[in-house]
Design brief:
Number of strands of chain A: 6
CATH superfamily of the largest domain in chain A: Sodium/glucose cotransporter
Largest interface: A-B, 64 and 55 residues
Order of helices and strands of chain B: HHH
Strand order of the largest sheet of chain A: 3-2-1-6-5-4
Number of helices of chain A: 23
Strand content of chain B: under 5%
Oligomer: heterodimer
Radius of gyration of chain B: 20 Å
Helix content of chain B: 55-70%
Largest sheet of chain A: 6 strands, antiparallel
Number of strands of chain B: 0
CATH topology of the largest domain in chain A: Sodium/glucose cotransporter
Distance between the termini of chain A: 57 Å
Order of helices and strands of chain A: HHHHHHHHEEEEHEEHHHHHHHHHHHHHH
Number of helices of chain B: 3
Helix content of chain A: 55-70%
Distance between the termini of chain B: 33 Å
């Protein structure tokens, strides 16, 4: 679908990005030491850190991906909201305080606090890199999805602009600027999404006549409709309508939140089915009952189909979301930016409040987009900005700019985590390179540039994927590779260094291999039929997370005599 | 380089005291939330038709339960913050 360029949008976008970069340069002078660069001196206030948690966590997947999935498939997008938030319970009750007490700069610091093992350092660092890169991909794809309607540029330019901006943010002031960018972004995102939901409820719902199917034909690699290339005049018609309201009404007027949900539940709504046959893609309107769209099964169709594979796939994803948050390296490093364990606890609670409130909003944002009459049938990731556009162009410009800042904030955190893994864990601890404070900061900056360039390449390669779907992969890998080691280290004294190393290695490789051999990867990555894939279902967590625990226990028991802890007792530290 | 050694005696004593009140509270609240979450997953996977029922306010159980999980996370987090004892 073609989206006309808006000068206003460009102006607001430029202001947001310029303000963020100015802030980074301003803060750059305050982060000269390694502790300043990697952990913002450990002096960030708990409230700022809590909102920064929200800014870090509410990524393109949360905003663009979930809204898009709800707008296209109904309730199933909200399952991600629930799972993403539930993961914070694990972070708060199990991980937060011990991690703060044990670590210094990175997740590997905490795991290795007691063993001083190069094996743990290198496996934890590689795991951090893999998880961060898998998490980076959807953020960059989200940036590309935004840039086309916002600035009229190609997807690739969006990816490049985000990559360059984030490299500048991270290189200038490390965790200090990253924290403030995330704080500002988190605040703006929650505030403006609240405004948007108020506007959705104030507008209420109205009916529209049924739409016609739309056909897109690919000719010489370019999409055409009506025999002509897609442009401003020869364009796809925006979709997403209510066909029937309860009681035969044609419009409702303003609605309260509960009334809005109840009305939609008793309405008939037009959604779209995409069918691809060779070079011809048909978007066919489908009339669906609101009651069906507001229960699970629109996207995870296997839930209703009743197959055991489908149920396992669904349970596996929900398990990965629950376990993954507390094992995401870019979230864990934020615990090192506050001064003590109590601040870590308080900032997590603030984060849960902000993130939870935002996820409640996502349901209304997604349903608002579904019925806005302004969906792009070819791109679910654009649903939230186009919902804003259905109200007015200024709101569209602001929401798009915030979404872009959303990507900047999350990508900054991811690149910080990845650069810390390279410079601090691999170069400093594993390779034993002698580095003074200045050299550690320089190594981190060089690593940031390299990771940023890799992220740009991957953002271009994965442009066709829904961003929430891709984040699901990152959660599976993090939960399988990192969580068993973290939990067992904190709560089982029999844990050995060999057990931790084996658990991370097996969890990482098994989840990666499963994903790469899944039906989704066959279909979307290799262009082969999903049925040819050897894995019985797509989401590995339900197998690979328990496998990580099992490997750790077995290897620890086998190496009990040689791999015991030394130095201070982590279980005792965790138990304080 | 990774030679074995046993934990120091005072740390053994710290461990013998085992889980502190804060950690015990955290694990108890975690268990409460886990039960709620497993209930949700179980209904979705094995009894999804229950989600279509409208037990309160005309809104279906899927939405009510999902919202309850989000609110419960915050409520339990606040309880944890209020009941946690200061660090020694």
């Amino acid at each position: 679908m073609h989206h006309p360029t808006s000068l206003l949008a460009i102006a607001i976008f430029s202001f947001f990005v310029g303000a963020v970069l100015f802030l980074s340069f301003y803060l750059g002078s305050k982060a000269k030491s390694a502790k300043g660069y990697y952990a913002a001196h450990g002096q960030v206030g708990w409230f700022v850190n809590g909102i920064a948690f929200a800014g870090d966590y509410l990524s393109a997947a949360s905003f663009l991906g979930i809204c898009g999935m709800i707008a296209f498939y109904g309730y199933d997008g909200f399952l991600y909201s629930i799972g993403y938030l539930a993961g914070w319970v694990v972070a708060l009750f199990v991980i937060a305080e011990p991690i703060k007490r044990l670590g210094k700069f990175t997740f590997a610091d905490a795991l290795d606090a007691q063993f001083h093992s190069r094996g743990i350092k290198i496996t934890a660092a590689i795991s951090t890199l893999v998880v961060s890169i898998f998490y980076l991909i959807p953020q960059m794809v989200g940036a590309g999805a935004l840039i086309q309607p916002l600035l009229g540029l190609r997807h690739e330019w969006g990816v490049i602009i985000v990559g360059v901006a984030v490299i500048i943010i991270v290189v200038t002031a490390g965790m200090v600027s990253t924290t403030w960018v995330q704080f500002i972004k988190g605040s703006l995102l929650v505030f403006f999404c609240t405004i948007l939901v108020i506007m959705i409820l104030s507008r209420g719902l109205h009916t529209s006549p049924p739409s016609k199917p739309q056909v897109v034909i690919k000719v010489d690699g370019k999409n055409q409709i009506n025999g002509q290339p897609i442009d401003e005049k020869n364009n796809l018609t925006p979709v997403g309508h209510v066909l029937e309201l309860p009681g035969g009404k044609t419009e409702t007027g303003p609605l309260g939140p509960v009334e809005y949900l109840r009305t939609l539940q008793n309405s008939k709504i037009e959604t779209y089915k995409k069918e691809v046959k060779g070079d011809v893609t048909t978007y066919t309107p489908v009339a669906q009952k609101g009651a069906d769209l507001l229960t699970p099964g629109g996207y995870f169709k296997d839930i209703k189909a009743g197959t055991w594979k489908g149920k396992l796939n669904f349970l596996s994803l929900m398990l990965a979301l629950f376990c993954g948050t507390a094992a995401l390296p870019h979230i864990l490093i934020r615990y090192y930016t506050v001064k003590d364990a109590a601040s870590a606890r308080k900032s997590t609670v603030v984060g849960i409040a902000a993130i939870g409130f935002f996820y409640v909003l996502t349901l209304f944002l997604g349903l608002g987009a579904m019925t806005s009459g302004n969906l792009d049938p070819t791109d679910s990731n654009m649903s939230a900005p186009l919902l804003a556009k259905s109200f007015n162009p200024i709101l569209f410009a602001i929401i798009s700019a915030i979404a872009f800042t959303t990507v900047l904030g999350t990508v900054s955190g991811l690149i910080m985590a990845a650069s810390g893994a390279v410079a601090h864990d691999i170069m400093g601890s594993f390779m034993k390179m002698e580095m003074d404070d200045h050299a550690k900061v320089r190594a981190g900056k060089i690593a940031s540039v390299v990771v940023g360039i890799i992220a740009i390449g991957l953002g271009m390669a994965f442009k066709a994927f829904n961003v929430t779907f891709l984040v699901g992969w990152a959660f599976n890998i993090a939960a399988s590779a990192n969580l068993p080691a973290l939990v067992m280290l904190l709560f089982w004294r029999g844990t050995t260094r060999q057990g931790i190393t084996a658990s991370i290695t097996v969890g990482l490789l098994s989840s990666l291999a499963w994903i790469m051999l899944s039906g989704d990867a066959y279909l979307n990555l290799y262009g082969k039929p999903a049925a040819d894939a050897p894995m019985p279902f797509n989401q590995p967590g339900i197998v690979t997370i328990p496998l990580g625990f099992l490997v750790l226990i077995v290897v620890s028991v086998m190496t009990h005599s040689t791999g015991r802890r030394r130095g201070h007792d982590v279980v005792a530290v965790a138990a304080r | 380089m990774d030679t074995s050694s046993s934990p120091a005696p005072d740390l053994r004593a710290a461990h013998d005291a085992h889980i502190s009140p804060n950690s015990r509270l955290g694990l108890a609240l975690f268990a409460v939330y886990l039960a709620l979450y497993l209930g949700f997953m179980g209904i979705a996977a094995f009894k999804y038709e229950l989600f279509a029922s409208t037990p309160f306010g005309g809104v279906n159980l899927a939405i009510l339960y999902g919202m309850a999980l989000i609110v419960a996370a915050l409520v339990l987090a606040l309880i944890y913050m209020m009941l946690c004892k200061p660090e020694r």
